[in-house]
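Section 5.1 Outputs to date
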Amino acid sequence: MSGRLAGKIAIVVGAGQTPGDTIGNGRATAILFAREGAVVVCVDRLGDSAVETVAMIAEEGGDAIALAADATDEAACASVVEETAERFGRIDVLHNNVGIGTGDNTATRIESEAWDQIMEVNLKSAILPTKMALPIMREQRSGSIINISSVAAVCATPTVAYKASKAALNAYTQSLAIGNAKYGIRANVIMPGLMNTPMAIEGISAMTGVDKAKLIDTRDAMVPLGAKMGSAWDVAYAALYLASDESRFVTGVMLPVDGGQSARVG
């Protein structure tokens, strides 16, 4: 590879994944960052899954460590950042990739418990790691923060909690970008569209009872560009650009990676 992240220290929160037939966004991003020369701190609530990602990186000759942490727990996030800073002396990239939609429903059917859990996970999992990493990035006067949102934030969807959480994440990231530009820190959002990842396919299939092959066909047909869902690698390559110095003048951006789905808005 070309070494686009050579010498950088990157934390990927959500670097494990749901078991399935394909690779997830977090794992693909961690692997690609390592391929491009970064030392990657792979963080996941499920420590064994983070260890699997590290093993895949090591097989390719990359450099990574695994840390088990719940990204909605402030003390756990502080521990991840402290250990990373102690080991490596800096944090160049923070990639927040945790999100759920379990229990989501329409406006008249959403349960308060499901709403609270979705908002808690989808927002705190970005806000808390960022809160802990910012003092280090400010002191070094550089850093790239990448939050994974969704085109659901801007596109029509019948369910309400996931959409609201991702719209809030977009707004949070915009505020983060403006508030930290003077420190040389950039903050951007990636908005994936319909993706063929384990969380989407295995997760939705299990939740709805729809056969995976039928679900894939249905989702493929909804994508304007080539009538085919994207993969985790599409998200990972967008993240690579935002993590690298190539995007040094890019902050506060909400980047759709969606095969044109969001272009239908308006």
